[in-house]
Amino acid sequence: AVNHDGCIVFYYGLEGGGGGSIGDVGWNHICSLSSGACKFHDFTNNQSSHPFPPSRNFSVFQLVTLHLYFHIINSANARIHFQPVFPQHNLIIFLFPPDIVIMLPLYTNRTMQHVKCAAQGRLMWQSIRNSVPASSSFAMAKKPQNLSQLSPSFFTTTSLRSYSHKTEPQSAVETPDEQAHPGMQHQDEAIERESMDFDVVIVGAGPSGLSTAIRLKQLDPDLEVCVVEKGSYVGAHILSGACIEPRTLNELIPDWKEKGAPLKVEAKYDEMRYFTANRSFPLPVIPQMSNHGNYLISLGELCAWMAEQAEELGVQIFPGFPANEIIFEQDEASGDQRVAGIVTRDMGIGKDGKPKSTFEPGMELRAKHTVFSEGCRGSLSKQLFSKLKLREGCDPQTYALGVKEVWEVDNALHKAGTVIHTLGHPLDSKTYGGSFMYHLDDGKINLGFVVALDYENPTLSPYEELQRYKSHPDVKKYLENGKCISYGARTLSEGGLFSLPKFSFPGGIIVGDSAGFLNVPKIKGIHTSMKSGMLGAEAIVDALKSEKVEADTYREKFEKSWLHEELHKERNIRHYFKWGLWPGLMLSGLDALIFRGKAPWDVRGDGREDHEHYKPISEVTPIQYPKKDNKITFDLLANLSRSNTNHEEDQPCHLKVRDPSAPIEVNLKNYGERSMTFCPAGVYEFVDDETTETGKRFQINAQNCLHCKACDIKDSNIDWTTPEGNGGPSYASM
To answer: What does the alpha-carbon distance between residue 297 and residue 734 come to, in Å, rounded to a whole number?
Structure first.
């Protein structure tokens, strides 16, 4: 209903009792109710029409919502554009000539259609704001307390502005005081936060988190499940090779082909090669690396599809909401501390740590069980490891950094389904790593280079190693007439079985690469992450049924599963390479081909963290990297523009330097400019400054950050924390 003052009033239960979907008949009815008040324009086809696909069905709730929107707009000059932003809701964009824009939500998630409380209304409202495309600016005139108070006065019309990525990032110079500021929550005064209660809250909409959500709703459709994701949409921060083994997907969604999962290109041709500087030699493809039956995919596209499947089951997904703080409280029964949920990051805090006019406090999302699926080196998972001592009794985790590009290449050289992995050049025999090249459809190639982060030489740059790899004749031939269209980077966990932490605790569990379920010899982690999420979901349902505070059957389920069997067979492979490339190849071949994963010994790491492997710069030969040609090889900042990364600059730096003097006094003096070499985004710089004793000043360009977490791993003086929601890369099909 619409009051005389134009305020929207929502009535609940509109879908109850078989409301169902109406489709085009209902759409035509809404058009007639609007009495021609709005003119519709389809921007895609540049013709006047209704802006929705004819095949799209709309629920009673959605149609009534549209009806109300038309009444409050009440302008014969309005143009409407339907913009699918991400799966759980869409935006209707009202454009008023010449340059005024108003954005309103059209919810497609059944659970979200019932406005249960003011807090949920606020969360939806923030989600709408976070999803605004970068091509327009948007602000609220005032803060609605719930959806029933939305009216035209709550929207501020703003001029459209052009947007282009800054190839040359502005400096994010921080004073020691600014760098020391926690930047997580405004600390000057107690903040009144709204709270929402769920059965399960999941942090991160990657393959493990979404698998957990889907499995939970399959086992108990009545569970209230919420997923928060720091990316502006599901898939925005997702990066992988990626070649997926569909074993877990077959278990989770057996009819995935019928449901249109984006697995289109089957792996058909496997190659493994050893590179010298100018030549290559074939190597045998060991059974673990065979890709027969696997698929070459974009993991971001798969996660977006999985989010749709989760929402159809009733899962609530909120992109643009970084989980910034863990809620701990005392369990009434045992008296022990338990995890009780998370707090999302405050929005609208300036670089000075003070709230701006756009300030929005983060919300408490409380749950009986919280699932941490943040991916490799998650900031909250890192806190859990320390506070709850979850890593006692296991080896230190070891990591790698993968740097990836997507190319469009000459079709004459493209062969869909081709998988090529290499070892050797450009790395030396002491450094573990290698390359991948996957031929997808439509003339696209995914290629990348992975470098283990236990390397010793502080002048080594994983980004530069990718550029050197592309200059090899066997790679260059594919790229000479091609075009690089996307770039990104992400770390991955390589420690394997011996580095797995305790992954259940009172009030929560850890799944996926946050725990470290990657199978390194297979170069596969998607199917293992998904399986860990499924096992975790089953353990949570067990705990809820028995009213336990901890899902303590998770470990038992893991040890009885094929996932444990798979990781146990490969437990030694990565660690053989601590003795170098050739001993590693011989021992891993012996383990895989002769003992078939049942070697009567265990090989572990050396007990050091990755950053502890650095040698002083005086003890190494500095690596000289060649100049870029800007056709096949690129300067870092030029490539960074292909990641679409961007951050609000007026916010506290999310990269926390523990000791502000260490970058100069420790790093620069002993290890050179190592912060500049390990970072694949140009975040860290040593700039000339005549006012300092050394003539150098450490500078952080936080707006460049790709959220790869390499700095958090390779420099013990830096802590990566979540920036404001919607910040970071916006990967296209990575």
So the answer is: 9
pLDDT in tens, 359-400: 889 999 999 999 999 999 999 999 999 999 999 999 999 999
Helix axes 207-219, 526-545, angle to 10 degrees: 40
What residues form DSSP beta bridges with 439? Answer: 445
Please name the residues in contact with 139: beta carbons below 8 A apart, sequence gap of 6 or more: 156, 158, 358
Residue 92: which of 38, 28, 32, 46 has the closest Cα? 38
Q: Are 42 and 49 in contact (CB under 8 A)?
A: yes
Query: Residue 70: in which H helix or E strand, if any?
Result: helix 60-73
pTM attached to this predicted model: 0.79
Helix then strand then coil, in percent of the chain rounded to 5, is: 30, 25, 45
Distance CA 220, CA 698 (A): 52
Dig out the tokens for 684 from the structure.
């860290």
Q: Taking a C-beta distance cutoff of 8 angstroms, is the pair 733, 667 a contact? A: no
State the first-to-last Cα distance of the chain, in angstroms, to the nearest integer. 44
d(CA 456, CA 619): 10
| Rounded Cα gap, residues 335 and 481, in angstroms | 66
Residue that the structure tokens 């700095």 belong to: 711
Concatenating the DSSP letter of every residue in 256-302 gives TTTTT-S--EE--EEEEEEE-SS-EEE----GGG--TT-EE--HHHH
State CA 371 to chain mean position distance: 15
- The SS3 assignment for 574 reads helix
Task: Name the burial class of residue 430, with classes exposed (0-12), middle (13-18) and buried (19+) by CB atoms within 10 angstroms of its CB.
Answer: middle
Identify the helix (H) or strand (E) that includes residue 505.
strand 504-505
DSSP assigned state of 610: G
Alpha-carbon distance 200 to 225, whole Å?
Answer: 5
